[in-house]
Design brief:
heterodimer; A: 271 residues; alpha+beta; Alpha-Beta Plaits; 13% strand; extended; B: 277 residues; mainly alpha; 3-stranded antiparallel sheet; 6 strands; globular; transport (chain B)
Chain lengths: 271, 277
């Protein structure tokens, strides 16, 4: 019985085979491609231009035209090239190389055609007129490594403090008596997360070999308290509890049942 | 020399357009001459008129983005231009990768690769439409413009305008692929942007027209054409090349020694069939 002879390769059979092949190849290509995309789009340590929307939306909206790069007078921004290990074609900056100089007219933002850079987020309204305000930018947050910052050794250095364009607000110096020498002071930099824009001028200015103060993206740099710690001394802070979704309880095998139930069943005792 | 000029007139015009556009982008980015700023994904003419890549917008849309007005307007302008006028002219007159793939094709001809190397890899001309569909599906799934994340066109144009770096590597890959693997492999088979413009420009007005009575059957046009399947009517009947896959590069027009081919405006009223028969 030679069955192969009986199979006629009809046009219909050919068409179906072609569709199956195309579908299969598409699935294969799609999976490889998706794998690449999922890897390539997640760059948690990337710093975006001022007024960039949330990273998820930014990846959707950025059309990679580079108009923000062209507009920046300090060549702070560049578009990711192959080899930069960042999402291809999207703008970023490296503060230690060229920080953001926080231009008051923010030329990089209004030129964005797609809405990936949102003018509203860096504008304030004074007397009914919308006005650009670069201090509202939140590109990242400066973080001090107290181990490698020489000010924490007691050596006087206020490089980052003086470099900060929002001096005495985004970075403050904390004065503390130096017990070791007994006659000197520590002047240690403290970053305020409410006003720091993440421009990176402090990182650029830092005197140590590798910057002891460095800008990290906000969601990496910041923690999250959760709703169950409340400042009792601050008016209205317990309002945060309203957002909390019910009690947080840990269930174990025993605590699943109420205490009386569990004591009245003697199953486990007589086993 | 005159002969060469004549048989390369559209080629020279194309290179001039391609390099001119890139030159304007470079001038805007490096020297602040703002006639045309941005790049091929989205740009601004004279700081006023926005232009944008409609295929990139389509991907962003399927990725779930709420797009700004500027890019939508820019995308509409470009789309309209290619629907009405240009056909797939983007590929041969604007896209910088065209120079790379043409170079690969030229190298192929110089070394007679067509005749000396056995064809091992077969790729259909419809693969680009599958890739096009896949691009939109993946954009939807991953939430990023899928082709823009890998596009060698974007890599090359950004590389030329903003600095090359390692961008050389993927471009070299395309060159070698077209040289050794599949003839016109990237532009003629895979590129979803080419597929997109094939669909968009199907009905556009500017077309290569064929005069059957002048044709001497030398087949030089078919030899030079990067999308030779569109030249089906050669030696058979007169009319316009109406396939969207024709890139309007004009190579066939230049090499035709008997002037059987020419650029013209498609005649919708009398229909294409039966013209000058």
């Amino acid at each position: 019985m030679e069955t192969t002879d009986k199979i006629a390769i009809t046009p219909r059979r050919k068409f179906l085979a072609l569709m199956a092949q195309s579908g299969g190849l598409m699935a294969l290509g799609g999976m490889v491609w998706t794998g690449y995309l999922e890897e390539a789009k997640s760059a948690p340590l990337i710093l975006r231009p001022p007024a960039a929307v949330l990273e998820v939306d930014f990846m959707r909206l950025c059309i990679k035209c580079g108009q923000c790069v062209t507009a920046c007078p300090y060549h702070t921004l560049s578009l990711a090239k192959p080899g930069d290990t960042k999402p291809l074609g999207t703008p970023f900056y490296i503060p230690r190389e060229v920080p953001c100089y926080m231009c008051t007219d923010i030329p990089c933002v209004p030129v964005c055609p797609s809405g990936a850079l949102d003018v509203k987020s860096v504008s304030k309204i004074t007397e009914g007129v919308q006005e650009l305000d670069i201090t509202k930018a939140r590109m990242g947050l400066a973080v001090v490594d107290v181990e490698s910052c020489i000010a924490f050794w007691g050596i006087q250095c206020d490089a980052c403090y003086r470099a900060c364009p929002i001096m005495d607000s985004a970075i403050k110096l904390e004065y503390k008596r130096n017990e070791r020498t007994g006659k000197h002071a520590y002047l240690t930099p403290i970053v305020n997360s409410l006003t720091c824009t993440g421009c990176g001028l402090c990182e650029r200015a830092c005197v140590t070999e590798k910057a002891a103060i460095h800008v990290l993206p906000l969601d990496i740099a910041k923690g999250a308290i959760g709703s169950h710690y409340i400042k009792g001394w601050e008016q209205g802070d317990e309002k945060r509890l309203e957002k909390a979704g019910g009690d947080v309880t840990t269930h174990t095998k025993r605590s699943e049942k109420s205490a009386t139930d569990y004591l009245n069943t003697n199953e486990e005792m007589f086993k | 020399m005159r002969e060469w000029m004549r048989s390369h007139r559209f080629m020279m015009a194309r290179r001039l357009t391609q390099l001119g556009i890139l030159g304007l982008f470079i001038a805007a980015n490096s020297y602040g001459f703002m006639l045309l700023s941005g790049n091929l994904s989205a740009s601004l003419v004279l700081k006023k008129l926005p232009l944008a890549d409609p295929f990139a917008l389509l991907q962003m849309f399927s990725a779930g983005a709420l797009l700004g007005v500027d890019v939508l307007l820019g995308g509409a302008l470009i789309l309209l231009f290619y629907i009405v006028v240009g056909g797939r002219a983007f590929c041969s007159w604007v896209c910088p990768l065209n120079m790379v793939t043409d170079a690969a094709n030229w190298t192929r001809r110089v070394f007679f690769l067509e005749k000396t190397i056995e064809k091992k890899l077969w790729l259909g001309r419809t693969v680009r439409y599958w890739v096009l569909a896949l691009t939109l599906i993946l954009s939807f799934i991953t939430g990023v413009a899928a082709f823009e994340m890998v596009s060698p066109i974007g890599i090359l144009s950004r590389g030329i305008i903003f600095g090359m770096g390692l961008s050389v590597a993927p471009i070299l890959c395309i060159y070698l692929f077209d040289l050794f693997a599949v003839k016109n492999g990237w532009c003629g088979h895979i590129c979803p942007l080419g597929g997109f413009y094939s669909l968009v420009g199907k009905l556009s007005l500017i077309r290569v027209k064929h005069d059957h009575t002048k044709c001497t059957l030398c087949m030089k046009c078919k030899e030079i054409c990067p999308e030779k399947q569109v030249l089906g009517i050669i030696s058979k009947r007169s009319g316009a090349i109406d396939s969207g896959e024709c890139t309007n590069c004009g190579r066939c027009v230049e090499v035709c020694e008997s002037d059987a081919l020419s650029f013209g405006v498609r005649n919708y009223i009398n229909t294409n069939v039966g013209e000058k028969e």
